[in-house]
Specification:
Blueprint (H helix, E strand, L loop, with lengths): L2 H19 L3 H21 L4 H17 L3 H15 L6 H17 L3 H15 L7 H17 L3 H18 L5 H17 L2 H18 L5 H16 L3 H16 L6 H17 L3 H22 L1
Helix pairs in contact: 1-2, 2-3, 3-4, 4-5, 5-6, 6-7, 7-8, 7-9, 8-9, 9-10, 10-11, 11-12, 12-13, 13-14
Amino acid sequence: MSTGQGNVVRVLLERVENLRKDKKIIDALRVAHTAVESARRAAEQSQENLPELVASLEVAGDLSRETGDYPTAEGYYIEALGWAESCDVSPARLGGLKSSLGGVYDLAGIPESAIPLMEEAVDLLRRVDPPMEADLGNLRNNLGMLYKDAGNFDKGEENYVKALEIFERCIGRESEDVAAVYNNLGGLYYAAGYSAQAREMHSQALEIRIKVHDPLDPDVAQSYSNLATVLHELGEDEEAVRHYETALRILESRVSSDSETYAIVSDNLVMLLRELGRERKAQGVEKRSQKLLRRAVVGAA
């Protein structure tokens, strides 16, 4: 790339990064489009400039995905991959692009397109030295979710377990990343009909989250609620009620920011109480939740 052209693209990409840091995403996206056009012109003059074009396309794809414009993000990533495979880019960058494109297909609800791309990304990132363990752990976790949603529980379990091994090795057991994977494994086992295993996974997620989070953190409430669901399935209804009640108390502190989760947990508790013949208590929980949800709606208006 000539000095002038190289400076223009570098200046534009630095501007994009600064705008992203300032959370000016729309402005950053506008500048990213300009960077892509500048890099395309440079690449037309010399193939030595292709790595800069790949970098610009990746940034524009990231921003388009962030704003929810999945078709545009897809186009940028596909173009970037096409150029990347014809020039000498690192396995890390190629793996990152495949993972990003797979993420777009995941968000767009096209798992059959997302899975093979993420599998290819795993293979590429495994070649990087030193290993990109955090990225590999996240990829494995995402693959676990995709396989689980597709009903392939064996492959889902395999990827979740590998994600656990990676996270426990590189960041330690007591971390939200590890807790999240245990939570996801619990969801997989529950969906597959293995409630006892689901209980153990959700119990471990809860144990870790209690240690690493504020007591009123919504992730703690999620683990209490998920464990309550499994306990009810196993017939341990008294424990299930207590766990739902704990989750509800935590979520009451943030009804205005997450009314949907609060309503779901409240409904689950009310249904369980009615199954147990505790109509009066069920009505009390129902009335309180309806009052808090109405208040949240008024506050948001």
